[in-house]
Amino acid sequence: MKLGGNANCDLAPSCLRKEPGEAGGIKSSIRVDIGHPSSSHPSVACVRNETNIINCLQLPSWINFDQWESFKAATPLISLSIMPPTNVQQPLKAYNPPPPTKEDLDFADLALVDFSKASTPEGRSELARQIHDALRDVGFFYLVNHGYTSAQTAHIFDIASATFDLVSDEEKRDYTGKDTSVYRGYKPRKAWIIDPGVRDEIENYAVHRNVTAQDHPAILRPFLPELAAFTRHNHDNILQTVLRLLSLSMELPEDTLTKMHEFDAAGQSAMSFIKYHPRGECDAPEGSNVWLKGHTDIGTVTILYSQPIGGLQILSKDNKWRWIKHIPNAIVINVGDGIEYLSGGYYTATRHRVIQPPLDQRNIPRLGVFYFAMANDNVKLSPLEHSPLLQKEGIKNYFEADMVPTMEEWRKERTLRYGRSELKPSATEERVEEESIRGTVIKHYN
Ligand SMILES: O=C(O)CCC(=O)C(=O)O
Ligand SMILES: [Fe+2]
Prior knowledge:
The chain is built from nine helices and 19 strands. It is α+β, with helices and mostly antiparallel strands.
């Protein structure tokens, strides 16, 4: 193992990055840029003090975790990020979900958007029309040919499964998010109120898109390059393309929304793994089968990797809850509050919930992989008034002029209250509870 004691690391410019907004850009911690696993970017860890890179370590293929742990212990650092070489990965147990339900359920009719058409301007115009109609009529749609193979997606599910099943409760506690205004690290079961006297059985593990911006349990560390590539793919390929189509669909320049969602800007677009533990019969009051209350998503675009265990339902225009059907290796897309406010109500954030899975899948834990996109923190969630379409169709303002939140304010206020704040029963709708945030009403459905 080479432990050079100088700054002569030709990888340094690419492996260290300035923290945005910092004076002089130097922080007393180190960063390792991860690179794409399909490239030949070597695994490297760099150590820096206040001003200089003092040591770069190129990790040879034979390093193991004990050696890495001793290196870390022997190195007086404030913080350290590492991309371990991919060949120290232990193979993970494959996650094998059950087959899709055979029950004849009332499924929502979602459009299938073929992303392979997005590479040409003509294709994007066609897809922009398609997602326009899908969002106006139904609110959710599928994406296929999104660039990840079934095997790549399956391995992300293997990692998600290990995040919950192969980490001890004690270690989970060390990586549990402390700040309840942001999803980061684990959220344990029972943190949220579902019904009076009923708590959730949902475990979450949220990962900032810059995966080295937080520490991870040991089992995940060898997979950080893969997870980094995954958040990049979600952000740069899937999200940015959806945003281009959305901008076009509102007759706006194609980069209108992409500029509001920069990977490197301050913001909270993040990946999440979610595990729903089956609820015991006695844990819920008679007749309550809601696992995650009906809600709108807080951010702009939600990317949900289709998985076979049923339970996700959307509230259709006719006020009926309809199931989302599993399509292997498809992505399910919906828009959240952010797009509703930016589009002045032209696109509404469709309400959705998770209920107990159908009978033939009962008592099976339900695992999900998501990328929850948010606009840059400093984006004001006011309508894109220069859209000719919105001007024609009418623009709704959800907030008084001096109350319009930024994305950061909105996500923090919503996250802080979610599952914790007191909700009032709606005066007009049954099984609906409400809260008011900045003078706008947020509804929660059972
Ligand atoms: O688990 C699902 O299928 C949906 C989860 C969801 O809606 C959310 O976490 O916002
Ligand atoms: Fe949601």
